[in-house]
Design goal:
heterodimer, A: alpha/beta, eight-stranded mixed beta sheet, four-stranded antiparallel beta sheet, 10 helices, 31% helix, B: alpha/beta, Rossmann fold, 13 helices, globular
């Protein structure tokens, strides 16, 4: 396995106490695979992505678990060693990344500068040549590479971000809500580009998004998070055709679809729990219509339900009836 | 129109002047116009949900604001319940506004952070002098909050916006509109900032209000799956113009205009035929400052003919009630008819 997370714990100390943002999360990504990480706001998906690169904001820290990249535990690395891993082995594109370019520098110089800093001994010409190749791959014309960030559209800037993220040929790319602010057509263009790059460089990806439909189109497998816990993991088909967790079943009903009857079944009522004071046991039990006393005692573990490694964390996973109708 | 028309818009235009800057003004450069809404016509019947969808910059928000006269139109007519309101003065408009309300996109920005929920919802009643005494005011506020699905009401009345979640805030926004007992609502992306489970509950609330209060909506969204779930009729805008309009199910299931076809093919929705190949358009929506001759879509169109480069296609009825602004599709249709 290229990349594996085991029992990862992330906490934030905030004025009101300690928030458990990621709770015993385990995941793996194979080479060339694209894993979707989904959930609603505040579920911990972005925190999990940031924890992988150890770039948690102030007050956040990893309090347990392992993050293995090719057998090396990133949690144990010293900061200087970690700095080498970032961008070279694992790179990340953030939600607002397209607005994080230096406004006073033309695009190609910014990318080349990054290469120069990370690969000492590279000549400026080589770095620029490599940058232009990358921009070309990401379908940015050489002319646009000579422009300033404000002269590019959102879609073009996002392409430049992808070019930058791929500059050192990382093994794993984490993309956090990268198309959230973009129109559907641009979104489709960006994901087509990412798919091509994935094939070309046999790149592994973790795509973080709140939008399950986007992930369904662009990932091999999906992990669904709720209140800091991973509650279900499976292939796209497993999750969409045979969801097991009551939360995932409800979430799928909530998505307006292009199916026949045009009814939206607003399944899940209420709001997710506060991470400062999470409920005992399964985090979903206060909103779950089929919870049993057991659910309120201990957090259910992810267990496999088929040979495909489709796994779910629910004591009532064998419940067959309609939960939400 | 069987139920009577609530709103009719005829050839509505709203142009923004792009200020040229001192230097260009000195050298006598011409002012440039952004044609945000350019010759848009449609009508909405009582109790109908009419949805305007399109990508960012297509003019959908400007259209909604111009109709409510938050922006002054440049040309065309807006007829509300038989009355031409295009040139109405602000005092007379104020009375009408109680019947036309708006739900805004951002529930975090559209409420006064220093006002309690009760005061926010009561404010429209106060400024319009619609209540006689405190008791009547309180009753109306409670009623509106209940209608908006905030119950028990006592839990909300004396809270501040920051105590509420995004979904609850948006419900307060809806209550603020409902308290005036409006007949027509413009909802501009009311759910685009909310999680899907919250969005689903809110869309169902809008549906319920329409059933119970026979409210009429102009619903503005970028999300075609939301448009499909909610609307009776759907109009697709591109660069200030409606390019396709018809019953929502028809526009989504059998789109006519090449732009709509491409747009729908890339919406990542569940249950959309898996074998359908996405039509990915080249490039981006052109800058609306640049005037494009002929059909506005022709630079990105994959089935254009010569005529499209010079002549602007009007909105033509292709099948009963289903309109599209495309010469190629119209021609194909008339060929089929002759057969």
């Amino acid at each position: 396995m290229l990349f594996e997370i085991k029992d990862l714990q992330v906490e934030y100390s905030v004025p009101g106490g300690i928030a458990e943002a990621v709770n015993k999360a385990s995941l793996n990504v194979a080479e060339g695979e694209s894993l979707g990480l989904a959930g609603e706001s505040g579920c911990g998906k972005t925190t999990l992505g940031n924890a992988i690169l150890r770039i948690l904001p102030g007050g956040g820290q990893i309090t347990g678990g392992r993050i293995d990249l090719n057998g090396v535990d990133l949690v144990k690395l010293r900061e200087e060693e970690m700095r080498q891993v970032r961008w070279r082995d694992i790179s990340m594109i953030f939600q607002g990344a397209m607005n994080s370019f230096d406004p006073t520098m033309i695009i190609e110089n910014q990318i080349a500068e990054g290469i120069l800093i990370h690969q000492r001994g590279t000549s400026k010409e080589t770095a620029l040549k490599r940058t232009r190749e990358l921009l070309g791959l990401c379908e940015i014309s050489p002319l646009l590479g000579k422009r300033y960030p404000h002269e590019l559209s959102g879609g073009m800037k996002q392409r430049a971000c992808i070019a930058m993220a791929l500059a050192l040929q990382p093994k794993l790319l984490i993309a956090d809500e990268i198309t959230t602010a973009l129109d559907v057509m641009t979104q489709a263009q960006i994901f087509t580009l990412l798919r091509d790059m994935r094939r070309k460089f046999s790149l592994s990806m973790i795509i973080v998004s709140h939008d399950l439909t986007v992930l369904a189109k662009n990932c091999d497998r999906l992990a669904i998070m709720y209140a800091g816990h991973i509650v279900e993991v499976g292939t796209i088909e497993d999750i969409f055709e045979h969801p097991q967790h009551p939360y995932v079943k409800g979430l799928l009903f909530c998505i307006p679809s292009f199916a026949g009857d045009r009814e939206i079944i607003a399944a899940i009522k209420g709001a997710p729990p506060s991470l400062l004071d999470p409920p005992r046991g399964c985090p979903f039990h206060p909103r779950c219509p089929i919870s049993i006393p057991e659910c309120e005692v201990e957090v259910p573990q992810l267990v496999s339900v088929n040979t495909n490694n489709h796994s779910v964390a629910c004591y009532r996973k064998d419940y067959k009836g309609d939960i939400w109708k | 129109m069987n139920n009577g028309t609530v709103l009719e818009v005829r050839n509505l235009k709203k142009y923004f002047v792009k200020s040229a800057g001192i230097l260009s003004a000195l050298v006598g450069e011409k002012k440039r116009h952004v044609r945000a809404v350019d010759d848009v016509s449609f009508s909405i019947s009582k109790g109908e949900v009419f949805c305007v969808a399109g990508e960012s910059g297509c003019g959908k928000t400007t259209l909604g604001r111009t109709i409510l006269k938050l922006l002054q139109s440049d040309d065309g007519q807006i007829i509300f319940q038989g009355q031409d309101i295009t040139r109405l003065k602000s005092d007379s408009m104020r009375k009408l506004r109680t019947k036309m309300q708006m739900i805004f996109q951002d529930p975090y920005e559209s409420l006064d952070p220093r006002a309690k929920i009760y005061d926010s919802v009561a404010e429209p009643l106060v400024v319009n002098h619609l209540v006689e005494d405190e008791k009547e005011k309180r009753n109306k506020v409670i009623q509106a909050l209940e209608l908006a699905g905030l119950s028990p009401v006592e839990n909300y009345l004396y809270k501040y916006p920051h105590n509420l979640s995004g979904g609850e805030r948006q419900r307060v926004g809806i209550a603020t509109a409902l308290v005036l007992d409006p007949e027509f609502m413009v909802a501009d992306e009311p759910t685009s900032m909310l999680d899907v489970s919250v969005q689903a509950n809110l869309l169902n609330l809008l549906k319920k209000l329409r059933r119970e209060k026979s409210l009429t909506y102009l619903f503005i969204t970028h999300d075609l799956s939301v448009a499909y779930a909610l609307s009776d009729r759907l109009a697709i805008m591109y660069l200030g113009k409606i390019v396709e309009m018809g019953p929502a199910a028809e526009v989504v299931m059998s789109p006519i205009h090449p732009y709509t076809r491409a747009l729908i093919s890339v919406v990542p929705a569940i249950n959309l035929s898996k074998n359908q190949k996405p039509i990915i358009l080249p490039g981006e929506t052109p800058n609306p400052e640049n005037v494009i001759t002929g059909c506005r879509f022709h630079p990105r169109c994959y089935c254009k003919v010569e005529r499209c480069l010079t002549e602007e296609p009007p909105l033509m009825e292709i099948t009963p009630g289903h309109y599209a602004a495309c010469f190629v599709q119209e021609k194909m249709k008339s060929k089929e008819d002759r057969k």
